[in-house]
Amino acid sequence: MRNLREKVAGALDLNKEIILDMPKITFIGQLEATIENYRGIIEYTDNVIRVNTPSNVLRLTGTNLEIKTITQDMLYITGCIKCFEFNKTI
Fold this sequence. Notes:
By secondary structure, this protein is an alpha+beta fold.
């Protein structure tokens, strides 16, 4: 099913994150991250931010992490991001 969705998104030039129900993550170096299409915040400290997304859990680790902007479908995070990883379980 996912391959069909990818083909449709590519053929119609649609945003894949919307069609595939996945997060869109944009980094600016190690200093900023924007996460679109998220479902909720699981953990929030100055060293770890865990975010629930439609497909998995995104874990950012670093120092001085801070959520600067939060809207219904976007998070803007600043700080010194050292690592990010995806996990299937909360």
